[in-house]
Amino acid sequence: RMLFLKYRGEFSDHIKLKNARYMTNGTKGHDRWEESLKRARLLVSAEQNLDTTSLGIPLRGRYDFLIRNPIDNRNDLIELKTMGHEKWKALTLPHESHIAQWSIYAERIGITHGYVVIEDRDSLTPKYFPIRRDGMDVYVYSTRGGLKEERKDYISNLYNRIKFVMWCDENGKFPKDQCPDCIQWGCKQDGCVQYSNTLDLVTFEDWKAGEIRDTSD
Fold this sequence. Notes:
Order of helices and strands: HHEEEHHEEEEHEHHEH
Oligomer: single chain
Radius of gyration: 19 Å
Strand order of the largest sheet: 1-2-3-4-5-6-7
Number of helices: 8
């Protein structure tokens, strides 16, 4: 539903002053990492825009760091995030959106290995979560290197969710599936309440199964 509202330009996000400060700290952290990787002669490229022209879907972003792995003689993709200490301490896997970002970037630039790195905003201590792509499948590992999640056809499903949102918009439908945060905390978007009450609701799984299509599909 959040993707739907963003696609229509109706998503509203009021950033608190504290969160704005955190984002500024995150930007400085990226600059610090980039300089460190340069000094270590590991950096291949940084902050490169994502090319989605071949996908036919409106998607934009930029990956953080592409580094040369001197041990395995390959390029690795690093997605860097920062987090407050208590959340960082309890973290056993990266946030879903962080896994999705890494996966899409890796598929677009043809990378198979890398890390989602979560840095403690207070101590600057990093947690390294190895992540691997095999075609459209993604494998997420713990900080100790043990396989935690095996996600078959994960990247294809990410792309399909965007196509589903576009289809909903074009056909006067609204995603029935709520965002996880909205289920837990309650949605604060007026548009979400309005559309869920006025448009036909369609699940992503029904759409993907081909049970619901418009006549022009």
